[in-house]
Amino acid sequence: MAATVLVVEDETKIRDLVRRYLERDGLAVLTTGSGAEALMMLETQSVDLIVLDLNLPDVSGEAVATEVRSRSVIPILMLTAKSAEVDRIRGLELGADDYLTKPFSPRELVLRVQAVLRRSRSVVGADAATAFGEGTLIIDEDRHDLIVRGQSVGLTPTEWALLVALTGAPGRVFSRSELINRLRGYEFDGYERTVDSHVKNLRRKIEFDPHEPAIVETILGVGYRLGLRRDA
Ligand code: CA
Questions:
Q1: Ion ligand 1 residues within 5 Å by Cβ
Q2: Do residues 199 and 188 lie in contact, with contact meaning Cβ atoms separated by under 8 Å?
Q3: pLDDT band for position 88 (50/70/90)?
Q4: Domain over 130-226 is classified CATH 1.10.10.10
Q5: What are the pLDDT digits (tens) for 51-69?
Q6: pLDDT at 126 > cutoff 90
Q7: Fold of 4-121
Q8: pLDDT of residue 151
Q9: Ligand 1 geometric centre to CA of 168 (Å)
Q10: Of 64, 127, 140, 151, which has the maximum CB count within 10 A?
Q11: What is the rounded CA–CA span in Å between residue 228 and residue 182?
């Protein structure tokens, strides 16, 4: 079954262009120009990914993202007209999986959408649950389940991909650019601080004390590593 993408964008021209490209790529597309309507649509429709314009006339894209994140881990790709890096990082802090700055190439958008969808589906075909840190963290790639200190935790596809990369090689230090390429699924000259934002969000969900992280450790000047050992 085709994945369904909800495009939230008030500029008709961009909305139609995005719809055309996504549909040509075999995706089912729903559209709206209103943030409030988008939230209502999410109540009744099954959506696999949201393409969300940050600058909407009614409810801001930020507010929509925050609302979506408060109830689900559905992937969000943000569109922003603001090119300052600080705005991109802000989008990621709100829990967006990726962002594109306008003007963007529709082909690039399709690639990003595919990469995020692939991430959220890369759950099939892996082994059974693996435990780390004497059961502190249990990850089941097949079922897309994460248990931290006995509690089930929901991650966005990007946070999930980040954790899967780190748990794939406990103790190994991953550089930021290495992680960026893992996250996107293809080579991309990304901003390294993007990774820091995702790590921050991930830590907020899984660390006992996000200020003293013990699971995702920072290696100064190098990158990140899993601070837990794989259980035998
Ligand atoms: Ca707009």
A1: 10, 53, 55
A2: no
A3: low
A4: yes
A5: 999 889 999 898 999 999 8
A6: no
A7: Rossmann fold (3.40.50)
A8: 86
A9: 40
A10: 64
A11: 20
Provide the mean pLDDT of the chain. 87
pLDDT above 90: percentage of residues in the chain? 53
Q: How many whole angstroms separate alpha carbon 172 and alpha carbon 102?
A: 37
Query: Phi and psi for 57 in degrees, rounded to 5?
Result: -75, -30
Asked whether the beta carbons of 181 and 188 are under 8 A apart, the reply is yes
| pLDDT over threshold 60, residue 214 | yes
Close Cβ partners of 105 (under 8 Å, ≥ 6 residues apart): none
Q: What are the two backbone dihedrals, phi and then psi, of residue 8, each rounded to the nearest 5 degrees?
A: -110, 105
| CA distance linking residue 38 with residue 66, whole number of Å | 13
**Residue extents of the structural domains in the chain:** 4-121, 130-226
Peptide bond preceding 213 in cis form (omega within 30 of 0): no
Residue 81 has pLDDT above 90, yes or no: no
DSSP one-letter string for 101-148: ESS--HHHHHHHHHHHHHHHHTTTT--S-EEETTTTEEEETTTTEEEE
Distance 77 CA to ligand 1 centre (A): 14
Closest CA to 119 of 38, 31, 48: 48
* Contact predicate 47/41, CB 8 Å: yes
Task: Tell me the average pLDDT across 188-211.
Answer: 85
| Among candidate residues 24, 149, 6, 181, the one with its CA nearest the CA of residue 77 | 6
Q: How many other C-beta atoms can be found within 10 angstroms of the C-beta atom of residue 134?
A: 10
Ligand 1 center–CA 9 separation, angstroms = 6
